[in-house]
Amino acid sequence: MAEAVPLNMPKLSMAATDATFVEWLVEDGAAVNEGDPIYTVATDKVDSEVEAPAGGILRHGEAEEETEYPVGTRIGSIETSA
After folding, report:
1. Closest CA to 21 of 75, 77, 81
2. pLDDT: is 13 or 20 the higher one?
3. How far is residue 72's CA from residue 80's CA, in Å, rounded to a whole number?
4. Around 12, how many Cα atoms within 13 Å sit in the side-chain half-sphere?
5. Other residues' Cβ atoms within 10 Å of the Cβ of residue 56
6. What is the H or E stretch that residue 78 is in?
7. Do 20 and 74 meet the contact criterion of CB atoms below 8 Å apart?
8. What are phi and psi of 18, to 5 degrees?
9. Residue 1 pLDDT
10. What is the percent of the chain with per-residue pLDDT over 90, rounded to a whole number?
11. pLDDT class for 53, splitting at 50, 70, 90?
C-alpha cells in the first residue's frame, strides 16, 4: 500500500515565517531517492535546494513558482511503497 510523505515549505532560518517557492527540480511523477534535490526555495535573497525526505514518486502540489508561502504549507508529496 502506498503512503504519501508530505512536502511542506521548510523553515530555513530561526526567524523565517515564510519563503518563496522558486521551482521544482524534478518533474511531476518522476522517481526520486532520499536526499535528491527536488525543489528550490528562496529566503532573504538566498536560494536553497530542498532534498527529498524519502524515496518514491514525486507529486507536485498546487505551489506556484515565484510565490511566497508560509512555513509549513504543503507544496507536494512523495508516494512511497510502505
Report:
1. 75
2. 20
3. 21
4. 19
5. 21
6. strand 74-81
7. no
8. -155, 170
9. 61
10. 82
11. very high
